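2024-03-11 09:14:02 INFO worker-7 job=invfold-0412 stage=load source=structure_tokens
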């Protein structure tokens, strides 16, 4: 952030945040290896049962499943923030007052 803090590229950090969230969702999907575990975790995270079953049994790639509706409902941005994900966009905007002092 120290190096990129002087740049005025808000859209760049927004896209980077989106990519990082999708990558983390993909890692969680990969971690929950078996369909039964995926179903349990999606239901626990608030995804409707029918949708959780359908998504848990999918044979799509991990990257594709990270962008589905079920992962967006279950693994929300707020939930990822609770897990410790720090937003690059937020960090960049906190450095905004320092940008004019270089």
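2024-03-11 09:14:09 INFO worker-7 stage=emit residues=102
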């Amino acid at each position: 952030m120290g190096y990129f803090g002087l740049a005025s590229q808000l859209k760049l950090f927004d896209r980077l945040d989106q990519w990082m969230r999708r990558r983390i969702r993909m890692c969680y999907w990969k971690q929950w290896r078996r369909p039964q575990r995926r179903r349990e975790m999606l239901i626990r995270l608030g995804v409707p049962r029918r949708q959780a079953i359908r998504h848990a049994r999918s044979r799509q790639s991990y990257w594709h499943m990270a962008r589905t509706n079920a992962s967006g409902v279950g693994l929300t941005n707020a939930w990822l923030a609770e897990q410790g994900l720090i937003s690059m966009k937020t960090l960049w905007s906190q450095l905004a007052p320092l940008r004019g002092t270089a």
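2024-03-11 09:14:09 INFO worker-7 stage=report msg="The chain has a mean pLDDT of 85."
2024-03-11 09:14:10 INFO worker-7 job finished
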